[in-house]
Amino acid sequence: QVQLVESGGGLVQPGGSLRLSCAASGFTLGYLAIGWFRQAPGKEREGLGCIRTDDGSTYYADSVKGRFTISRDNAKNTVYLQMNSLKPEDTAVYYCAVGPQSSWYGNSCLLGDGMDYWGKGTLVTVSS
Predict the structure, then answer these.
(1) pLDDT, tens digit, 9 for 90 and up, residues 101-110
(2) CB contact at 8 A, 127 and 13
């Protein structure tokens, strides 16, 4: 059974950092794409970026480029989202999703349409 479980969310002060994890089970990362997304209250889902799990290539939305970094540990079957310089507007539920390798880049990544399975999300709150 394919499952993605996000963890690492919580309350952080503005300017702080947080690392989210996306643990995959029921499959190995292999030649896939893992994407990170978020949805703030009252807003549409936003694609943050994706990673190609075979070679670690990444693609980011302009809104988070330079602040957020996606990485993976294939041995642990886990993908990470490192978030730095957090702002109150980063407050949202953060999700990871998995799809075919072709979904790692461009709109196939950011729109999330190419993703097949989704986690249930983890809440990040940025507040003083």
Answers:
(1) 989 998 889 9
(2) yes
